[in-house]
Write a structure and sequence with these properties.
Shape: globular
Largest sheet: none
CATH architecture: Up-down Bundle
Radius of gyration: 16 Å
Structural class: mainly alpha
Order of helices and strands: HHHHH
């Protein structure tokens, strides 16, 4: 099945890479207000598009996990802990985007992606190593990460 969807998987995966995976870095390391705002707008336009796409289907392409989902995962799981504050991607937290938040929890729980993540390490890495963005190296205490284990309710979309 994934072979029949290869072109769509690659297309969605490329959009995710350009606007989301790379988009958060374009925001965080923007050299001008104009560059930041352009990256910010592209990032949240793509997140809105992904939310619309995932509102009626469990995965990004087809009815099973694909490369497109795997590509989106790292940015979503790090979003509130690092990108929202540190990279100024602050229109909304992931936890304030209902569809993407449920989707991310689905991946965390159903496919055990959560066992590969240490959110304290994520925060420590981003906040303590990018001293040009965070000169004090102070690592924030939040956000609360308890919500990752809450029911996601996406089983019916399978």
């Amino acid at each position: 099945m994934a072979e029949a969807l290869r072109e769509e998987i690659e297309e969605v995966s490329d959009l995710v890479y350009q606007d989301v995976n790379n988009g958060v870095y374009k925001c965080g390391f923007a050299g001008s207000q104009e560059a930041y705002e352009e990256a910010y707008d592209a990032l949240f336009a793509r997140l809105d598009w992904l939310s619309e796409r995932l509102a009626g289907q469990r995965y990004l392409v087809g009815d099973q996990l694909t490369l497109a989902d795997v590509r989106l995962w790292p940015t979503l799981v790090r979003f509130d802990a690092a990108y929202h504050g540190h990279f100024k991607c602050n229109r909304q937290k992931l936890t304030e985007m209902p569809v993407l938040w449920a989707y991310a929890r689905d991946l965390w729980q159903t496919h055990d992606f959560g066992s590969t993540v240490n959110l304290e390490h994520v925060k420590a890495h981003y906040y303590a190593t990018h001293l040009d963005i965070n000169p004090t190296g102070i690592v924030p205490k939040g956000p609360d990460t308890a919500g990752w284990e809450q029911p996601h309710g996406r089983e019916s979309l399978a």
